[in-house]
Amino acid sequence: MYRLVIQAPEVATQDLKQLARLSDAYEIQAITPQAFKLLGAHVDNDEAVADFCESNQLDYAFIPEDITVADIGLVVMDMDSTLITIECIDEIADMVGLKPQVAEITAAAMRGELDFRQSLTRRVALLAGLEFAALQRVYDERLRLMPGAERMLKGFQSAGARTLLISGGFTFFTDRLQTRLDLSRAIANVLEVADGKLTGQVNGDIVDATRKRDELMRYRDELGLARQQVVALGDGANDLPMLHEAGFGVACHAKPKVQAEAPYAINHVGLDGVLNYFL
């Protein structure tokens, strides 16, 4: 048996009633003013539910009724355009007047049109000579958490879940977010610096799609968790392998390819919509 979780900035009562009919749910309960769960839902009408929700701009998810927030032991997150609203490398590039060129490569990589490792190498090379201090400006002036991020994290953390931030971005940002949000673990690329300036190189191996999936599996196994106890969030093509490896892989305001292939998707509400799946 499943609960059907419906979310949007505004949810009409008649829409909930129609979805209850479509899914054969027996009861509608409010989670928050923007989120509702329909109990006893049947997944055999998944297509009709998906079509209705798309037409009415509603986020939906079928979640097994026996899984609650206390069962989730690990939450794995991408950083850029997932946990935070910006792509850090694009904003760093803006400091040297190269944002349009770098952002174009970033967008193509996130859509899955370019190899991520090659695209990152190309983008970082364009940053050569930039003062390292510019990264602090990006963090202070431009980095913002995605709406709902703090409520989501506090909800999972208070229920005992560990958290992993894994990014194809840079440790300068993930380290600060780890401290700020009390994250269990953070992994990202290390920008090479010489004489206070970026060299245009990355130290060590690049964090790509395979590494993201592997780190999720490593931490999951280390914690002795089952697949169904893992939630993963991402928005780009390089997140898909880890989204598929999690019990609940959620495309968050993601690129079309990711929305099409991820098991779950959130488009109309904040990241706390993922926490609502399990409340």
UniProtKB/TrEMBL annotation:
GO terms for molecular function: L-phosphoserine phosphatase activity; magnesium ion binding. This is Phosphoserine phosphatase. Residues 4-45 form the DUF4072 domain. It is an enzyme of class 3 (hydrolase). Transmembrane segments: none annotated. The keyword Amino-acid biosynthesis applies. The active site is at 78 (nucleophile), 80 (proton donor). Its cofactor is Mg(2+). Belongs to the HAD-like hydrolase superfamily. SerB family. GO terms for biological process: L-serine biosynthetic process. Pathway: Amino-acid biosynthesis; L-serine biosynthesis; L-serine from 3-phospho-D-glycerate: step 3/3. Keywords: Amino-acid biosynthesis, Hydrolase, Magnesium, Metal-binding, Serine biosynthesis. It catalyses: O-phospho-D-serine + H2O = D-serine + phosphate; O-phospho-L-serine + H2O = L-serine + phosphate. Its EC number is 3.1.3.3. Gene3D superfamilies: HAD superfamily/HAD-like. It comes from Chitiniphilus eburneus. The lineage of its organism: Bacteria, Pseudomonadati, Pseudomonadota, Betaproteobacteria, Neisseriales. One of its GO terms (cellular component) is cytoplasm.
